[in-house]
Amino acid sequence: MAEFNNVSIAKAANILFEGNITSRSIEFEDGSKKTLGIMLPGEYELNTVHSEIMDIQRGKLEVMLPAEDWVEYEGPATFEIPANSKFKLKVHSLVDYCCSFVK
Question: From which residue to which does any coiled coil extend (predicted)?
């Protein structure tokens, strides 16, 4: 899907790691939520509350999910992150992403 229709968009950005990861939250009419964002090159550790589906539109990164080895992704690509977990990222080039939250 190249675009989203009938959504509410948060005016304020989510800013992490001194602006190296930024996103905007969007909410759909059915209450589901996503974030659209950018990651700059660097190494990061993040955590989840809900399961997440990460759609990489463009860019290159490596991901280490819990109890797994590093896996490289280059957009377009998709991977899933389990709920209540920590994961690591090595972002090699600017990454444009869409993260869907699964409840």
Answer: none
Q: Residue 34 contacts by C-beta under 8 Å, 6 or more apart in sequence?
A: 4, 25, 26, 28, 98, 99, 100, 101
Report how many helices (DSSP H) and strands (DSSP E) the chain contains, helices first. Answer: 0, 11
Token look-up 């957009």 returns 75
User: With contact defined as beta carbons under 8 Å apart, do 98 and 57 qualify?
Assistant: yes
CATH for 13-102 is 2.60.120.10
Is the alpha carbon torsion for 93, 82, 100, 11 positive or negative?
A: negative
**What are the tens digits of pLDDT across the range 25-74?**
999 999 999 999 999 999 999 999 999 999 999 999 999 999 999 999 99
Domain boundaries, the chain: 13-102
Please state the separation of Cα 47 from the chain's center in Å: 11
What lies within 8 Å, CB to CB, of 1 at 6+ separation is none
Distance of CA 12 to the CA centre of its chain: 17
